[in-house]
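Protocol step 4 of 6: structure prediction from sequence.
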Amino acid sequence: MRDVIYWILCGFLTLAIAIVSLRYVTNFWLLSFVYSFQIHLGVIFVAASLVILAVKRQIYGLVLLLASLFLTAHGFAMLREFAQDDQRSGAAPLFRLMSFNIAIDNWKNSTALADMVIASNADVVNLLEAKPLTFHLQRLFKAYPYHIGCDNGKDSCDTLVLSKRPFVMRQVASIGSLRKDRLVVSSVDFGGQAINLVSAHLSKPYYDDYQMGELDDLGKALGSISGPLVLSGDFNSSAIAPSIQGLLREQKLKTLAPEPATWPIAAGAFGIAIDHIFARAPLRLISLKRLDDNLGSNHSGLIAEFALDHETSPVR
């Protein structure tokens, strides 16, 4: 009976490890969300391997344990790939940015959300699924005189970018073919230095291959931008998802590691980061924190501070 239980458990765990390991063979869109949980699944696989070895000590159980440890360790290594080499936390911040998907049906918390944005002291605020803030726009615009989005009623209120300083440049575009106007490219002058700000909201990776098309369009948009750049928004995927990794490598984007977990809310710090704030040199992050309260959203918001490594020419 012990042999039967042992081999049944081995069979299930072998299949699970094989599915997660497909990332090393192919970037199949249907499994992209699974790849985001590689570290979590790796830990579960390690625990399952130990259970199997407790049932019966055989070499195959040890092989499964080693494979599980590899998946876990490689997951952590992949997160480190996109970490800044030197945080230099003593540098004075040039500006502060908040990015938050407030959830499109989060009407009951709209007043608290508006209060939080105004009290945040952020220079730029990137709000996604901003429809619940429709009736608080005038109050927000008083605190943030410059904005992009939400100009034509609540049905057009999706991405809303707020700024305390005027925009040097602003553009709203679509990425992919599933939803419209979920890419906002702008530039803001901070002390004589123009900083490029890009807001993106990607589809869920298991919605067919829509996210792959969005990432292609996003990569082209980022590739046309020179100078210091911030990319923020809801990616619906971890930085270790192969498709996201490809974008970050190509565009030389970095963040602070470990990134704060932003989803699922119930998991707290043990969730995964699917909302991100990235920077491209000479701009760098000097702090990256999760907001204390999700205020009814199914995501946690992020707030970050940035500094420049050295002076650069203004972006035009």
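Step 5 (inspection) to follow. Helices lie at 2-21, 32-36, 38-55, 59-81, 110-119, 137-143, 210-223, 242-251.
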